[in-house]
Amino acid sequence: MSLDGKVAIVTGSGRGLGLAYAQELARRGASVVVNDVDAATTADAVAAIQASGGRAVAVTAPVGPTETAKELVNTAIEQFGRLDILVTNAGVLRDTVLWKMSDDDFDTVINVHLRGTFTTVREAVLHMRQAGEGGRIICIGSPTGQRGNFGQTNYAAAKAGIVGMVRTWALELKRAGITANTVVPVAATAMTATVPYFAAAVQADANGEPMPAFFRHDLGFGTSDDVAGLIAFLGSDAAASVTGQVIGVGGDRLQIWTHPEAALTAYREGGWTYDALVQAWPTEFAGATQSVGERFPELPEEFRPAAS
C-alpha cells in the first residue's frame, strides 16, 4: 500500500528525525511540505527529496503562530491540491532544573511544542473536515512526556500536553474519519548525542555502522529511519482504524503505551480523613505508588565511556 496521491506537512523537517519522516513519506509516494526556521536548511531538505524522485516544497517559518499554521496548510493546497497527513515534529529545548528555569525558557518550549502542535493541527483539521475525505494527524511525543526527566519541566509539560490533546482529538475527529495518534521516538538525535549512556550507539550511527544489539533490542534505541516507517504507516489507509494511541518506536522495538488508569482503588465509609490516611497509607497504598523518570538497564562494560 503506497501513499501515492497523498499530501503531507511535516513541521521541523529540515534535518534529523523530521527530515527522515518527510523523506519516507515522499518515498512512499506522498507530496511533502517541508518546514524549518532556516531557509538554507529547508532548501537542502527539499533538494534531497527531489533528488530521490519525490515531490516537496518548503515553508520557512517558526511553528507556534497561527500565521505559520495557515501558511503551511495553504501551501499544501496551492502546490499539491489537497492535504491528507500532518506530522507535528517541530521543537526546541531549553533544559535546566526548575529553580533555574526562566519564564522565557518555559514559554519558548511550550510555544513551539504545545502551541505549535495546537495551531497547526487546528488549521489542518479545518481543511480536512471541509474536504470530507478524512485525514491523519501524527504528533510527536517523548518518553519525557510519559515519565518525566530531570531538567525538563518545560519539555515534559509540552509533551504530556500533546498526548492529552491527541486523545481528545481522537474523540472529536472520529466522525470525520480523521485519526490522531502520538508517536514516541527513541533514536539517535542531536539531543541523545550529548548523553554519555548512548555514546556507543550514536557513534556507530555516525560512522554508518550497525548499532549494537544491546541498544537496538534491549533499549529500543535506533536510527531516524527506524521511526520513519511507523510515521508512514500511520499516515496510510492501512491505519484507518488506529486512533488515540501513544506508540513508542526505536531500534527493533515497538510499544503501545497504556493510557493512565487507576493503579489501586480503595473505599472508606465517610471518606479518607487525615487520620485514616496516616494509618492506612503504609499498608494499603504505599505498594501501589508509581515510579518516575526513565529506567535504563545497566550499560554493558564494553559500551561505557572511558574515564577521563
Automatic annotation (TrEMBL):
<protein>
    <submittedName>
        <fullName>SDR family oxidoreductase</fullName>
    </submittedName>
</protein>
<dbReference type="InterPro" id="IPR036291">
    <property type="entry name" value="NAD(P)-bd_dom_sf"/>
</dbReference>
<dbReference type="InterPro" id="IPR020904">
    <property type="entry name" value="Sc_DH/Rdtase_CS"/>
</dbReference>
<comment type="similarity">
    <text>Belongs to the short-chain dehydrogenases/reductases (SDR) family.</text>
</comment>
<dbReference type="InterPro" id="IPR057326">
    <property type="entry name" value="KR_dom"/>
</dbReference>
<dbReference type="Pfam" id="PF00106">
    <property type="entry name" value="adh_short"/>
</dbReference>
<dbReference type="InterPro" id="IPR051687">
    <property type="entry name" value="Peroxisomal_Beta-Oxidation"/>
</dbReference>
<feature type="domain" description="Ketoreductase">
    <location>
        <begin position="6"/>
        <end position="194"/>
    </location>
</feature>
<dbReference type="InterPro" id="IPR002347">
    <property type="entry name" value="SDR_fam"/>
</dbReference>
<dbReference type="GO" id="GO:0016491">
    <property type="term" value="F:oxidoreductase activity"/>
</dbReference>
<keyword id="KW-0560">Oxidoreductase</keyword>
